[in-house]
From TrEMBL:
Top-level taxonomy: Bacteria, Thermotogati, Deinococcota, Deinococci, Thermales
Family the entry assigns: Belongs to the Orn/Lys/Arg decarboxylase class-II family. LysA subfamily.
Functional note: Specifically catalyzes the decarboxylation of meso-diaminopimelate (meso-DAP) to L-lysine.
Assembly notes: Homodimer.
UniProt-recorded name of the protein: Diaminopimelate decarboxylase
Cofactor: pyridoxal 5'-phosphate
HAMAP family noted in UniProt: LysA
GO biological process assignments: lysine biosynthetic process via diaminopimelate
Binding site for substrate: R259, R294, Y298, E324, Y352
Enzyme Commission identifier(s): 4.1.1.20
UniProt keyword list: Amino-acid biosynthesis, Decarboxylase, Lyase, Lysine biosynthesis, Pyridoxal phosphate
Name of the top EC class for this enzyme: lyase
Length: 393
């Protein structure tokens, strides 16, 4: 299943700023439009009035973005010990960080005891038993696997019954009994259906599962309905249902948006370095799978905007520099014919681009830039050659 998404063009001001950035920084680089992030946050707050927003920081964990979200009242959702440490470094307090994830080892819980215990999302009975033993006074939510046929890529459908996430509905009662007989503070239940969801019907089905669980096992202080909002999802329709459900059960509504907030704010800027014809027509670029793995991993489709003009058009596959046949960032896209050095902006690169980047083939990670509306801020320096080797003996 390919993941085609709605396409929002770059703001003209940001587009021109990218050309300026390309004169100052080597390609490839990531660039983010702060105004778009803030607009997406405002859109979520309008669609879900009164909800607590826990930004899913795995989408893009840069400190420069986290601090700005903190300034505007957002909290964060982490899924690793490193992300918890990063959240604290950005200035979030323990009750503003929710730690989810399918495995919480004794070593992780010991470290949390040392650095500060966030709110815990417990994903399994094994997680629950360890938390009772090692962090007995923690605030927790239990994650539910709703066992639904979620419509998205197989790797992203966390709400399907066969996924590794959460506790099946029929096991929630026994898990709650264990938790309530301990000293844990059980805040509520948590559901996360998947990522890049475009159909309100998926949310309606998930909300029906939560409605029944809250009716059977409540009351609870909190109802965490997760995130996964696709870029083209009708937020108003979903928001109305979510608000109504939380109010019905007198619970605080929590949400975990990630990609929705940052994807369309970011681009990966790359240069063209020639055309190569085999049985396909390839445009050779200096960005590839080390900077953007989603096309290879999920079949994700990222729109591409040329930052140059030419009335002559041609159709290309975008071939990255890695020695891998799968290092193709887009296929069959029509572009103005480029000259060597012309710039492309690969869109929807604000989420799961930098955060999933790698040093494969000893490739340094690119710089990351934030456009404030007045100037460029470097929020991550380009990695040096020396930094590639600094951990080796």
């Amino acid at each position: 299943m390919s993941m085609s998404q709605s396409y929002t063009a770059l703001r003209p001001e940001f587009r021109e700023a990218l050309k300026e950035a390309a004169r100052l920084f080597p390609t490839p680089f990531y660039a983010y439009d702060l105004q778009v992030i803030l607009e997406r946050l405002e859109r979520l707050q309008k669609a879900f009035p009164g909800a607590e927003i826990f930004y899913a920081m795995k989408a893009n964990p840069r400190l420069g973005l986290l601090r700005r979200l903190l300034e505007r009242g957002a909290f964060v959702e982490a899924v690793s010990l490193g992300e918890v440490y990063r959240a604290y470094k950005a200035g979030f307090q323990r009750n503003e960080v929710l730690l989810n994830g399918p495995v919480k080892t004794p070593a992780m819980l010991e470290e949390l005891n040392r650095i500060g215990i966030p709110i815990l999302g417990l994903d399994s009975l094994a997680d629950l038993r360890r938390a009772i033993k090692m962090l007995p006074k923690a605030k927790v939510l239990l994650r539910v696997n709703p066992d639904l046929p979620i419509a998205t890529h197989d790797h992203l459908a966390t709400g399907r019954g066969e996924s590794k996430f959460g506790i099946l509905p029929e096991e929630v009662g026994a898990a709650l009994e264990q938790a309530r007989h301990s000293h844990l503070e059980v805040l509520g239940l948590h559901i996360h259906l998947g990522s890049a969801l475009e159909h309100p019907e998926d949310y309606s089905a998930g909300y029906r599962v939560m409605d029944e669980l809250y009716r059977t096992h409540g009351p609870f202080q909190v109802m965490n309905l997760g995130g996964g909002f696709g870029l083209g999802l009708d937020l108003g329709k979903v928001g109305t249902q979510a608000i109504s459900l939380a109010r019905k059960h007198s619970a605080e509504l929590w949400l975990e948006p990630g990609r929705y907030l940052v994807a369309e704010a970011g681009v990966l800027v790359t240069r063209c370095w020639g055309v190569k014809r085999t049985r396909r027509n390839y445009l050779l670029i200096d960005a590839g799978m080390s900077q953007l793995i989603r096309p290879m991993l999920y079949g994700a489709i990222h729109p591409v905007e040329p930052l140059y003009k030419n009335p002559l058009k041609e159709t290309y596959d975008l071939a990255g520099p890695a020695c891998e046949s799968g290092d193709v960032l887009a296929r069959d896209i029509t572009l103005p014919e480029p000259q060597e050095g012309d710039l492309l902006a690969i869109l929807q690169g604000g989420a799961y681009a930098s955060s999933m980047s790698s040093n494969y083939l000893d490739t340094p990670r690119p710089a990351e830039l934030l456009w404030t509306g007045q100037n460029w801020e470097v929020i991550r320096r380009q990695q040096t050659w020396e930094a590639l080797l600094e951990d080796e003996l």
